[in-house]
Amino acid sequence: MFGISPSKTGTAKLHDVIRILKELGDDLKSNTLGGEKRRESLEKLKVYGRDPSYADPIYTKEGINTLVNQAFDENTPIAASREALSCIANSLLLKTQTRKYLAETKSWDKLIERLKSPEVHDEFLICRILFVETYLEKETISFEDVAKQHGLANIINDKMIQHESRFSDQGSSTITNLMADNALTETAKLIFNTTHFWPALIPALTPSIGSLFKILTLSNERPPLRQPVAQVLNALLNLDAKSPEWSTAAFPPATPTSVLIKLTNLLSSCLDAYPEAELNTLASPLIALLSKMRSSNIPLADTYLRQQLLPSVDDRTQVLGRSKSLASRLLALTTSPAAETLCDAIGNLIFELSDSDAEKFVANVGFGYASGFLVRKGIPLPSAGAGAGANAGGVPVNPITGQRLDAEPVDNLPEMTEEEKEREAERLFVLFERLKRTGVVDVVNPVEAAIRGRVEELPDDEE
């Protein structure tokens, strides 16, 4: 029966876990349980293991050994084997010591061989297990050696080709295979971690670049950065942007800006779909990928991104950051307290698009936006007049706000009369005197100081 929900808790749960593990261990020697009974027992153990309280025997060396042997025993049906793999995957996430126990079983060959299965359910489970194992300390195991010995990179590259074909066949349809998407998510996570912790494996995974970019351009996810798209973006971040595979996939010869257009459209959709706190996590890798593409030494990438992400003449009809353009919305995000990581990523990209030159940066975004970024990065601020000569289509702009001077609002208030100025001075005098009497702050009344200064400055012949 599927969908088991064990009702035992506390010590009763612990005793049941001990019983099931002993039963499964004995079965490996006697083969008396039968396929369906194995599956039921492993599923029950999987459900118990979701909450580690009173389930400690699962996370012991003996418990992991039993699960590994059940997963790969020749008498274990595929459904029962997957339940055992699910138990292992959950254990690795919940109890870090089990990662070492799994490595000590030396079952890499069986795990990676299983990954060759065309079934996406197997891909999902094995890639999740391998993903967590990449966090093992290098003193425990060299994941790089394991991957090279068992041809892991080639298998991953083949998996990515299969996912690319699925997306191509799917076309513009919004109907997706949930398990296939979950498998792709786990495989993309494995690519990211492998290339992050074991950079020597980057060249072996370079063939996946084309498939990853193709999946991105073919995706029609709603909301825009739901899985697997977010992890596919991440998977590209550590791969070689100087490789021929990157150049061909990121800038297709027939339509060299198509990927850039897709990514900037995706970014614009994200700004509409998510609140700032979520954007901080979801959109930062997208900005990082755009920055990586800009650094690919492809001139059109720099040109296109400047057109899309730097303020235009139209943006400058108001204070920068207030229009609805992508460039303005990104600038506005750089001041968001809820999106610090994203703020930094956007600032870095715009600074790079300004040739990493502080004066050009100020000219592009205005001193108001630029100053905070430059101070955080320890970059000397340009002189006070930097950006003052900036212009938008030949029209001077305000160096602080970036707005065109001819578009700034005109002060239409009439000039104050002398009598009105005196009344305003008296009002300010009274307010400052009240503030001084509170004792909260020590202030000098500016009106009093102004009067005293005027008296002191009178020439001798007017005394």
TrEMBL record:
GO terms for biological process: G protein-coupled receptor signaling pathway. It holds the Pfam family Ric8. One of its GO terms (molecular function) is G-protein alpha-subunit binding. The keyword Chaperone applies. GO terms for cellular component: cytoplasm. InterPro entries: ARM-type_fold, Gua_nucleotide_exch_fac_Ric8. Keywords: Chaperone, Guanine-nucleotide releasing factor. Belongs to the synembryn family. This is Uncharacterized protein. It comes from Microthyrium microscopicum.
